[in-house]
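Data's thin. Show one?
=====
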Amino acid sequence: MVATTAYSQPENLALVRKKTEVGIREAVNGVKGAAGLIAIDLTNDDTFAVNENMVFPQGSAIKITVLMEVYRQAAKGMLTLTDTHPVTAQYQVGGSGVLQTLGDGTSRLSVRDLCVLMITLSDNTATNMLIDLVGMNNINSTLSGLGLKETRVQRRMIDIPASKRGEENLSTPAEAARIMTILYKGEFVDRKTSDAILDILKIPKRGTINAEVPETIKVAFKPGGISGVSTEWAIVYLPQRPYIVVAMENYSVGDEASDMMRKASRLMFDYFSRVGRASKYGTYVE
């Protein structure tokens, strides 16, 4: 649905929107795997969505929920972000990150530093330390409290036996977008806590959605990927028209997931940037 009351030519805007929607559907439905996407205009809640309620494994994108629980507990006085913890062998796992290369117990890092490594380098060892610190049950309890039924953390990172048991970290495009909306609006615990989480998510790193956005525009995001799966949750801070994009795919073939996400990101940026700077008659006000 398009909010057209501010426009004197709503049928013109609707045509532009329809073309964008067709492009999004073609991108999502053009992959050989199963894919879902949602994009939300944060100024009026106008939404583009394809398979937004399908459940997908999340890879490292689920680390956003771990970050949220850390900061929730810090805000409630249950832990202190400056407290330091030793990096020990019991937490060290392979995959992404640098902490796996450190000696057993030879280094200590603060809780906040672990959060930064978890998000910017997708450090799996840091993530496992934080999951154990805050408790997996507490993470999921907080998610339930937000009204989320499908988003769950069910295993630590690189836990092969748990994966074989079917214990996967899950979400849907719609629920991931809900999480990002709550953070954007400052509704997770309070504005200060939400902003602290977003500040970490805004730290520059490699991604797919942000790769199609000019470097001058901040993006708060976390990508995720495991074999056959690609995900990304993002808030694009486009002046006049900030928006959310969440994309997910499983049963993926080759690079099709990243290609789909790049195309969708280009389409959404093109649409929202035009709408954001246009007058009610569709002329661009620079």
Summary: The first helix runs from residue 10 to 29. The chain has two domains: 1-58+171-286, 60-168. Residues 1-5 have pLDDT under 50 and may be disordered.
